[in-house]
Specification:
Blueprint (H helix, E strand, L loop, with lengths): L13 H8 L5 H4 L3 E5 L3 H13 L2 E5 L17 E2 L11 H11 L6 H20 L25 E2 L5 H19 L2 E4 L2 E9 L2 E9 L5 E5 L2 E4 L20 H7 L5 E2 L4 E7 L22 E5 L2 H9 L12 E2 L1 H5 L9 H16 L8 E4 L1 H7 L1 H19 L8 E10 L2 E2 L12 E3 L17 H22 L12 H19 L6 H16 L5 H21 L11 H25 L23 H4 L1 E6 L8 E6 L14
Parallel strand pairs: 1-2, 1-9, 2-5, 9-17
Antiparallel strand pairs: 3-4, 6-7, 7-8, 10-16, 10-18, 11-15, 12-13, 12-14, 14-15, 18-19
Helix pairs in contact: 3-6, 3-13, 4-5, 5-13, 11-12, 15-16, 15-17, 16-17
C-alpha cells in the first residue's frame, strides 16, 4: 500500500499540526548532515539556499554552466498567490478549490491546500529578495488574471516572471556558496542514484566537460530536475530538459506517478517545419486582453491560407470567437486543456489559419482600441517583441497566430506529503514530482509549487528524516555501493559509445516525438495507444542496434549526452502510453475520445479512476507494476467541470 502520510485533522490545520509533530535537528547537529540537491531551478535553488541557511551542508548539481540558466528562467506570465490584493473574493480556500477543479479532481486535497496556504508567504519572500513585481499606481503589487480562475491573483514582472524569481533564488544561493555552506557543481549530470540498505545515500554524475564519472555522498538527495516534456521532441522546454535523473531513480525503486498527464499549452507559436528543434511559448497572460478566433467558414479560412485575404479583412460578423461563445463565464480565460482542445477542434474543422492551417488567431485589436497601444505595450511589450523577432509579424497591427504545444508535465516521481519518494532519503520537488496539479496545471502555478516546495516545505520535512537516522556520522564514501553504481554507469556509457549505426540520435528522438504527439497527445484512443506501444518498442530496438553515437567519453560530447537522454525517453514514452491506456477515462490533459460528454468535454469516471497511478519498475523489457493511491475528497464535491 502507498502511504501518502497525509496528517489527520481538519484541512486548514493539517500543515500546521504536521510541522509541530515533525522531529527537529538542532543547529549544532545540522552542520553534521550533508544534502545533495540535483537541479538548480526555482525548486532546487530555493531548497539549497534554505537548507544552507539553516546550517546543513549542501552540494548542488546542474548540467548548465550556471544555476541561473535553469529552464525556470523561461516562465513568462506570473506566479499565483492568495493575497487577495484586488479584494475580488480570493482566499486560500478559493485558490485551493480552483487548483483542485483545474486539475479535474485528480490531485491530493492536503497537498493542494498546503500549496495555497504557503503561497502568501512566497510573495513576501521574493519581494524581500528584490524581485521587481509589477506595481499599480498606488505602489501595491499588481495582479492579473490567468486561466481557470475568476479572480486576479497572479503576480508578475512583465513577461519575464520566471527570470526575475530565479534571479532572487540564485542570489540567495550565491550567498550560501560564498559562505561555504553550498558547494556548487555546474556542467555535471546525474546519471544514477546510489543506494545503501534501501536508502538514498548519493549520486553518480558525469562531468560534461571532461567526461569524468564521479560519485558524491550525502545523507539525503533532493531531485529538482523539472519535467519531461521533451519526450515529444518538440515542446516549449529548453532543449536540455530531460527525464534522466528522475528515470534513473525510478529504476532504483522510486515509483513514477501519472506519467500520461501532459499539459498542452494553447498559446504557442505554431510549428513551421521539420527544421525546428523546439517551440516557443507565448504567455497565457496574453489571453487577458487577446481574443481567440478563427473564421466562421472553411471557405474564408482557405482564402486566408492561400494569402488571398488578410486577417484584418475579415469582418466581425465573420469571426468565430469560439472560447467566448462556448464558455461565456470564463471566455478566453478557460484552463489550458480546454483552450487547447477547442483550438484543435477548430483546426480539425478546416478553419485553421496560417500557411499550414495549424493555427488560430490571438487578436489584440479590441484591447488596443480600449486601452491604447502604450498600455498594451507596457503590459506585454517584451512578449510582442519576441513574437515579432520570430515571425516577422507585428502583433500590434495584425493578430498573433498561435497553436497548442507540449509545455508542462503534471506526472512525475511519486512523493508523499513530506515530498519523499518511495525510496527513503530521496525527495522530489517542483515539476519533478506529481503532487499538486492533478490532470491539468492552472497557469502561473508552476512557479508557485517550485518555490513552495523549496522555501517552505522541504526545510521542515527533510529534517524529520535526518533526525530519525540515529547517527551523525558522514556517509561512508568507501562503501562498495558507490563503486558498483559508478561501474554500472560507465558500462552504459561504453555501450552507447559502441553503437555505430546509420541514424543520428536526433533522428530517433524525432520519430519518438511524432509517435507521442500523434497517439498520446491532445486526443487519445485505445487503438492508437496500443499502436503507439508497438511502435515505441520497435523504435527502442532500432535505437540500440542502429543509432550512431559519435566521439569518446573523456571529452565534451553532446552526442553522448543526447543518446543517454533519448534512451530514457524511449522507456518513459512507453510507460506514458501504458498509463494512458489503462486510464479509460478523460480528465484534464488526458483526453480519451471514447470518454467525452455530448458537448465534447472531458468525461471522468470517478468510481473507477479516482486514484493516482504509481508505477514500479520491475526490470528491463518487463511490464511495470501498477500501484494505486486512492484519492479521497472530503472538502470538495466531485462534479463535472464546467467553465460555461
Amino acid at each position: 500500500m502507498l502511504d501518502s502520510k497525509v496528517p489527520a485533522g481538519p484541512l486548514a490545520q493539517k500543515w500546521s499540526n504536521h510541522k509541530f509533530n515533525l522531529k527537529l535537528v538542532n543547529p549544532a547537529n545540522k552542520r553534521k548532515f550533508t544534502v545533495i540537491v540535483v537541479g538548480t531551478g526555482l525548486a532546487g535553488a530555493s531548497a539549497a539556499a534554505s537548507l544552507a541557511e539553516l546550517g546543513y551542508n549542501v552540494i548542488t548539481f546542474c548540467y548548465q554552466d550556471s544555476p541561473r540558466r535553469a529552464h525556470s528562467i523561461a516562465a513568462q506570465g506570473g506566479i499565483n498567490a492568495a493575497k487577495s490584493y484586488q479584494n475580488d473574493g480570493d482566499s486560500v480556500f478559493r485558490l485551493f478549490y480552483d487548483t483542485i477543479k483545474g486539475g479535474d479532481y485528480r490531485s491530493r486535497e492536503a497537498n493542494v491546500y498546503r500549496l495555497a496556504e504557503v503561497s502568501v508567504n512566497i510573495i513576501d519572500q521574493c519581494v524581500a529578495q528584490g524581485v521587481p513585481f509589477a506595481r499599480e499606481y498606488g505602489g501595491l503589487l499588481d495582479n492579473r488574471s490567468f486561466g481557470g480562475a475568476q479572480v486576479s491573483r497572479t503576480f508578475y514582472a512583465r513577461g519575464q516572471t520566471g527570470q526575475q524569481l530565479l534571479l532572487g533564488a540564485y542570489s540567495a544561493l550565491n550567498r550560501q556558496i560564498k559562505k561555504g555552506k553550498v558547494k556548487s557543481y555546474t556542467r555535471h549530470e546525474m546519471l544514477d542514484l546510489v543506494m545503501i540498505d534501501g536508502h538514498a545515500k548519493g549520486i553518480v554524475t558525469r562531468d560534461l566537460v571532461s567526461g569524468k564519472v564521479e560519485t558524491h555522498a550525502a545523507h539525503a538527495v533532493l531531485m529538482c530536475t523539472g519535467g519531461y516534456g521533451n519526450v515529444f521532441f518538440l515542446s516549449t522546454n529548453a532543449m536540455g530538459c530531460n527525464v534522466t535523473a528522475a528515470w534513473r531513480a525510478h529504476k532504483r525503486g522510486a515509483y513514477f506517478a501519472n506519467p500520461c498527464y501532459t499539459q498542452i499549452h494553447p498559446t504557442c507559436i505554431p510549428v513551421t517545419g521539420d527544421h525546428q528543434s523546439k517551440l516557443t511559448l507565448m504567455s497565457e497572460s496574453l489571453r487577458n486582453d487577446g481574443r481567440v478566433w478563427v473564421p466562421k467558414t472553411q471557405e474564408m479560412a482557405e482564402r486566408l491560407r492561400k494569402g488571398e485575404i488578410k486577417a484584418n479583412d475579415i469582418k466581425e460578423d465573420d469571426r468565430d470567437y469560439f472560447l467566448e461563445r462556448k464558455y461565456p463565464s470564463f471566455g478566453n480565460l478557460v484552463p489550458r486543456d480546454v483552450a487547447s482542445r477547442n483550438a484543435k477542434e477548430a483546426v480539425d474543422d478546416g478553419r485553421g489559419v496560417g500557411k499550414t492551417g495549424f493555427a488560430v488567431f490571438l487578436d489584440f485589436k479590441e484591447a488596443i482600441g480600449r486601452l491604447g497601444e502604450d498600455a498594451v505595450r507596457a503590459k506585454y511589450g517584451n512578449l510582442f517583441d519576441m513574437y515579432y523577432q520570430i515571425t516577422d509579424e507585428n502583433p500590434y497591427k495584425q493578430p498573433m497566430r498561435i497553436y497548442p504545444a507540449v509545455h508542462y508535465t503534471m506526472g512525475g516521481v511519486w512523493v508523499d506529503y513530506n515530498l519523499m519518494t518511495t525510496i527513503p532519503g530521496l525527495y522530489a520537488l517542483g515539476e519533478c514530482n506529481f503532487s499538486d496539479h492533478g490532470a491539468n496545471r492552472l497557469g502561473a502555478s508552476a512557479l508557485m509549487q517550485g518555490l513552495a516546495d523549496g522555501y517552505f516545505v522541504i526545510p521542515y520535512t527533510v529534517g524529520d528524516y535526518l533526525a530519525k537516522l540515529g547517527s551523525f556520522a558522514p556517509v561512508d564514501h568507501s562503501h562498495p555501493a558507490f563503486e558498483a553504481t559508478r561501474k554500472e554507469v560507465e558500462e552504459k556509457i561504453n555501450k552507447l559509445l559502441s553503437l555505430n549505426g546509420t541514424q543520428t540520435v536526433d533522428d530517433i528522438h524525432k520519430k519518438l516525438g511524432h509517435i507521442m504527439w500523434e497517439y498520446c497527445g491532445m486526443a487519445r484512443t485505445a487503438e492508437g495507444l496500443q499502436k503507439a506501444q508497438g511502435l515505441i518498442q520497435e523504435l527502442k530496438k532500432e535505437f540500440w542496434t542502429n543509432v550512431k553515437v559519435l566521439g569518446e567519453n573523456e571529452e565534451l560530447n553532446l552526442s553522448l549526452e543526447k543518446a543517454g537522454r533519448v534512451a530514457d525517453f524511449l522507456e518513459l514514452g512507453e510507460l506514458m502510453v501504458v498509463d494512458a491506456l489503462q486510464r479509460a477515462e478523460s480528465c484534464g490533459g488526458h483526453f480519451r475520445l471514447e470518454s467525452q460528454t455530448e458537448e465534447g468535454e472531458a468525461k471522468r469516471n470517478d468510481e473507477e479512476f479516482a486514484y493516482v497511478s504509481a508505477w514500479e519498475y520491475k526490470g528491463d523489457n518487463v511490464p511495470e507494476e501498477l500501484h494505486k493511491e486512492d484519492l479521497v475528497f472530503e472538502n470538495v464535491q466531485l462534479t463535472q467541470r464546467s467553465y460555461k
